[in-house]
Design brief:
Oligomer: single chain
Order of helices and strands: EHEHEHEHEHEHHEHHEEEEEEEHHE
Number of helices: 11
Number of strands: 15
Strand content: 15-25%
Structural class: alpha/beta
Strand order of the largest sheet: 14-13-12-11-7-10-9-8-15
Shape: globular
Largest sheet: 9 strands, mixed
Mean pLDDT: 96
Amino acid sequence: MSKDGSTYSPVCKTATKACEKGEFPISVIGLDHGHINGMVQNMLEAGATLDMVWDKDPEKMKNFKASFPKVMMAKAEEDVYASKESMMILSSIIPNERWKVGLKALSHGKHYMSDKTGFTELDKLEKARSAVAESGLKWSICFSERLQVESAVLAGQLIEEGEIGDVIQIMNIAPHRLAPETRPDWFFNKEQYGGILCDIGSHQFEQMLFYTKSKTAEIVHSQVGNYKHPDYPELEDFGDCTLLLESGATGYTRLDWFTPEGLGTWGDGRLFILGTKGYIELRKYINVGVSSDGDNLYLVNGTRQEMINAAGKTGFPYFAQLIRDCLDGTDLALPQEHVFEVSRIAIEAEQKAKVLKGFQ
């Protein structure tokens, strides 16, 4: 397990191929966040093939080619959009620029997947909605804290099977390790990264909607603060938010950049799902004091109490489903309105957040 969240890129090696070789070529524009490696590799495991890559930084392109030797390094960004091969463009460019890549991808007849967060401004989100409506193409966001965590996938399956009844509340604790010396300048510029609720909060809001089977949610309260990093005045190192979901359930998340150095991974992510017939706890990335293994799911209901290690049990079905959605015109991997509603909640939670004074 990586101790650096910026390079954390889990890959499922047991994926079922969703297409024949060469049937679904993909390309990449923008290598600003390390998540792109996992996004690409999981698409390849699901059957995609890699066409081209472009980034304004030649060194990043060289490093990417070292990981994916068969990729062609484009001479210009426009070459990727103009490619007759690629059917989808993936991007982990700086967050407030991800919408631009998406609009150009769709305008060139290509589907699009970005790293989270996909948007930092509501007007850009509306441009994306219009582009999808006009083109009929997919605009997806890789919310890796559910889509690339097998225990989180298994939790969804158990809920669907009725193991804990109707979901009443989601509580998500999402600590991250900052390691400021490893972070680029844009990471500390709020206009560029969007704020803590918009950025890593988007993961948590996605899970709240998904597990409660809700299409929308109301922001009850949100707050952000900078408690310990006066040298980075635009960094929000703490945030929390409560949602009222469409289903009637509630959701609470706490986000922070305070993972201590002694922890053996980048963050002790926990998810608690309370249902009318039982509950589920996920210890996603480590089981502190017990094991360094992640993907630990705890299930308690009317007939059993057990711990399940989900590693190797579910895979990451999102990637294969997304390929089929693009080829078949279906909407199964991550419904389009779900993607946009998560983005809307994340942006508005940030906009409405009370700013805490912290300890400074």
